[in-house]
Amino acid sequence: MLQTFDVFPACPRMFPVQSSKLKPRGYRVLPHVFAAHRYRSRRWSRGVVVVVVVVRPVPAAAMLKSFARAMNVAARVSNRATAARAPRAAEPLARSASCGPFTRSVWMLCHSGSHGGRPRLIPSKSLLPSASCGCGGLHTDGDKAFTEFLSDEIKEEKKIQKSKTLPKMSGGWELQLNGAEAKLIRSVSGEKVTVTFNINNSIPPNMEEEEAEQGQKAEDSEPEIVSTPNFVIEVVKQGTKNSLVFDCHFPEDEIGHSEGEEESDIFAIREVSFQPDGEADWHETSYTLNTDSLDWALYDHLMDFLADRGIDNAFADELMELSTALEHQEYIKFLEDLSSFIKCH
Amino acid sequence: MGVVLRNLQHVVPLRRARLRKNVEIVRHILGIQKFDMSIICVDNPKMQRINNIYRKKNMATDVLSFPFYEDLRPGKLPCAVHRDEYNLGDIFLGVEYVMQQCKETSCDFHGTLTVVLAHGICHLLGYRHETEEEWDEMFQRENYILSEFNKLTGSHLEPLTKRCTRQVT
Question: Where is this region: Disordered (chain A) (predicted)?
Fold first, then answer.
């Protein structure tokens, strides 16, 4: 027997989800409430500032130019630093702190005096902090602090790592990993289904916002980071040259994050096309069906087609878990690599 | 104009195309094709939360309707003027709850979903079952919808109100 029930008094304004708000599929909806309470910010902020340090031989002319510039800077720095910095108690090597924040080319110039007959360009007692262990790399106080910081972060991240092994997908999917990219492969009755995703940039960018909303209560229980990567499904049938390819994603809702406001499917198809089987690159010449303006009935059939091949909401949830675990694993590995890079080899 | 279908749960495998087709038949029977509505499929915890928030009943249920028009006279279609007003409202379908009921009573899941949906749509159209008169009126409408549905599809569906108690909730 179905339970007795009655209708809730109509209150369209009170209730957050209305048909008018429920956008037809294809409207690009932004931050998804679904994952809203699952995000947390990393203990180590993963900012977007990218610093690339390139150490390479510099042509003589360029070196002179940069050297002249460096000299000016160094003079300013050393003047200020002399007063500001206390001398280090012990330097690992005889090379005194004369070539701190400069690139290797400047470092060589600075040192030429000690090796050859050329006079020192910067007095050895100028306070450019450095330390070297003889590995040929530059070590600074900042590097040391950075390494210590990373060591703590790695410990913390390992503490919150749920498992060192990746969760298994149910349904007999075989997992293949290639760095940040993962493939799930399954063959059923002559059909091969491959799901490919990449964990890079797979964490929604609204973590900070979430943290602000949650305020200090999150201090003890940090919200979890959830990786929601776009993923591509390829269905290959025996004896066909083309595979049917679905470009899918985890939609994010643009409206509020409070209780009951989620309104998107767990995952959605963005595009569908045929692509030559076995080719890695996406052929832009292939007709691509965009689901933005697609007939809803056709869309439902496409979703049912995927569900018949084991790709449904339950799969999407497991994919999210797998991607989250993989992302976290790679993140820890990156921190370890970073720490090794900064330390001596 | 159409039915926005959302599946927010992963407990019950859902045939979206079949669900949509059945809803379209019911819409056709009622002559409400030009009105939008949304159907959101959710699991028990979600249904329980919504039921608790809006009805103060802390339990899962099978269907909750949220009519766009609050004071619609049963059976009268809204007089919509602007495009945005061609909207009947939202129906939350407790698909997990319905599935459990179907297992207990050995009923067909998608058939039962159609019955539950017909009930929910009647609510969007102003029908209620808070008094005996309202209950009778709603039963008649559901009976009509499902008998027409049965004729078109060869099904044997019965109104939900028939199975419900007359107790006013």
Answer: 199-224
